[in-house]
Amino acid sequence: MLAGNNIMMGELFFKENKQGGIPVTFMNMDAKAGTKLSGEEIFRLDGKVSNKRILRPFKYTFCKQRSFNDECSEAERDMMKGCWTLCYDKFDYTLDEWVLKLQKHEIRDPGKFKLIAGSNCLSDFWHRTIRELIKAIAQIHDCGLFHGSLAGYNNYVVVGDQLKLFNIGGCLESLHDQHSRKIQDFQEFRDTLKMLLAPSFKQWPERDRFLNCFDDAAKLNFCVVF
To answer: What's the domain of life for this entry (predicted)?
Structure first.
C-alpha cells in the first residue's frame, strides 16, 4: 500500500515463518553518489543499536537504473543513479508528516501527544518520551556512533503512541572531536523539542528552564557519559 512518494507499507515474509508476513515499512532513497550515506551504510549503522526508541531495520536492497561502460558521458553517469530501499519496522508517519497532518486537521491525536497536564507541566507522555529518547541518544554514543541530524523532523517516526528516531549518521572514531559531536546530537534534539513543545506558548518557564539545560555544559556532560 502506497503511503507517500518514498514510503510504502507492506509485509515481510520469511520461509520459516508459517504464520504470515510481518508488517513493515519500505523507504525509498535517492542513491546518487555523494549526496548521503548509502542505504547499506544506514542499515548497518541503525542495526548496531538495540533500543526500543530506535526504529529497527530488517533488510535493504539497491536497484540500479542503468548501466554503461567506463567511457560513458556525464549525462550517462547521471543515469547510473539508482534507488536504495530500506525495510523497517512498520511506522505510522515520519514526524514531519504527522505534524503537517495535524496542522491540516487531517488527523487528531489529542490523547497521544497531549503536551500539558496540570499547571504548566509536561504530560506524562512527554516526560517518558523525552527521557527515553535522551537515553537512546546516549546509547548511540555508547556504541561508538553519532546521529548527526536530530534537528530534522524527518529523522523521527511516529509508531503507535511512541516517537522513535532512525537514520544514524556515522562512527565517532572517524571524527577528530568526538565529544563535541556528542554534545551537538543532544543540542540538535533540543532544537526539535523547541519546535514541538508549544512554541506559541510565550510564557512557559518550566519548558524554557528545561530546554536551557541543553546549553549547560555540566548537565550535558552528564548526558554524554550517561
So the answer is: Eukaryota
Report the predicted TM-score, pTM, of the whole model to 2 decimal places.
0.79
List phi, psi (to 5°) of 67: -125, 140
Please tell me the distance from the alpha carbon of residue 54 to that of residue 63, in angstroms, as a whole number.
Answer: 26
H or E, element range at 134 = helix 124-142
Measured in degrees and rounded to the nearest 5, phi and psi for residue 174 equal -85, -5
Count of other CB atoms within 10 angstroms of residue 160:
10
User: What pLDDT digit, counting tens, does each position of 126-170 carry?
Assistant: 889 999 999 999 999 999 999 998 998 889 999 988 999 988 888
Please name the amino acid found at residue 110. P
List the one residue out of 87, 80, 91, 24 whose CA is nearest residue 53.
91
Looking up cell 572514531 gives 173
| CA-to-CA separations, 104 to 7, 52, 100, 101, 199, in angstroms, rounded | 20, 30, 6, 5, 18
Q: Which domain holds residue 182?
A: 93-224
